[in-house]
Write a structure and sequence with these properties.
single chain, alpha/beta, Isopropylmalate Dehydrogenase, 10-stranded mixed beta sheet, globular
Length: 335
């Protein structure tokens, strides 16, 4: 789907972060600069190195840069990831985490026809700060499911399916055991589904879904689920299509959005020019679609596909010997 340009210039917050985040960000920006779009990049610091230098892994100045931007590109954070990414999600009320699972050629994907989206609730469940405590007997974690947040993420999943020509949404839960919390999630799912009669619905237990992702991943189009389940299934999905070096993600809220690869800072190869930049680039493509630049997103995606299909310029994780910037150059040559 294509659309007309929404702005003459876009203010993009750029947070390279730690380790290979700097390298994959540089490679991605070099390709974005080849597109016929006017970007104004505003750089900010966050992560382990920032914490050592400033005393905090996420300075207020960086949060302000993100708040004032049309979108944010984030590279990677190391040990401070929870203090950076989770805090940004909370501060910016980014309630939806999107993880596309798509197979590309020459990537060790288990199947060549996988293409589905995991829509994960991002603000509650077991991942809420300060809801876990030690006791005399061990520890207790509180799992919070609210009608408001689950209705919001379920509606988002159905809207995503409708807007992207998907015909089915699958709810994933464990309502047979978590009868109150996941029972509520399942109930809200089918109530909201009535507003989208053109979209097929189904639901599975999370353990069954974990099996189905391996045995029949082609049957999924859009999966909507709670925070912890979405986190786990997303990484399983990455294993389906060649690993974390190929998985982008988006964090979407009412007032902002952040786009990042899910591979982390990889300190063992940082500074060696070996990092695969494609997950960062696919995250940038998600950003382009978010701001309405679908023609540019299609062009960028096609260039990546051509480089992967040729199989001549691949990083070591894909069996090649190309450097991060050599991959970027090959993609630019195919734009």
């Amino acid at each position: 789907m294509s659309t007309s340009r929404t702005k003459d210039k876009y203010n993009i917050a750029v947070i390279p972060g730690d380790g290979i985040g700097k390298e994959v960000m540089q490679a991605t920006i070099s390709v974005l600069d080849e597109l016929d779009i006017d970007f104004d990049y505003v750089y900010g610091e966050a992560g382990d190195e920032c914490g050592e230098k400033t005393g905090t892994p996420l300075p207020k100045e960086t949060l302000d840069i993100i708040r004032n931007a049309d979108a944010c590109l984030f590279g990677a954070a190391g040990e401070s990831a929870a203090d950076v990414i989770v805090k940004i999600r909370q501060e910016m009320k980014m309630f939806a985490n999107l993880r596309p699972i798509k197979s590309y050629p020459n990537t060790n994907a288990l199947f060549d026809d996988v293409d589905f989206m995991i829509v994960r609730e991002n603000t509650e469940g077991l991942y809420i700060a300060n809801q876990e405590k030690l006791t005399e007997d061990g520890a207790i974690a509180k799992r919070i499911i609210t009608k408001k947040a689950e209705k919001r993420i379920i509606d988002y999943a159905f809207d995503y399916a409708r807007d992207n020509n998907k015909s089915k949404v699958t709810a994933v839960h464990k309502a047979n055991v978590l009868k109150k919390s996941d029972g509520l999630f399942k109930k809200i799912f089918y109530e909201e589904a009535e507003n989208y009669p053109e979209i097929e619905t189904e639901d599975f237990y999370v353990d069954a879904t974990a099996m189905y992702l391996i045995t029949q991943p082609q049957n999924f189009e859009v999966i909507v689920t709670t925070n912890l389940f979405g986190d786990i299934l997303s990484d399983e999905g990455a294993g389906l299509v060649g690993g974390l070096g190929l998985i982008p993600s988006a964090n979407i809220g009412k007032d902002g959005a952040l786009f990042e690869p899910v591979h982390g800072s990889a300190p063992d190869i940082a500074g060696e020019g070996k990092a695969n930049p494609i997950a960062m680039m696919l995250s940038a493509i998600m950003m382009l679609r978010y701001i309405g630049e679908n023609d540019a997103a299609d062009k960028f995606d096609a260039a990546i596909l051509k480089v992967l299909d040729e199989g001549k310029t691949l990083t070591s994780d894909l069996g090649g010997s190309a450097s991060t910037m050599e991959v970027a150059e090959a993609i630019k040559n195919n734009l």
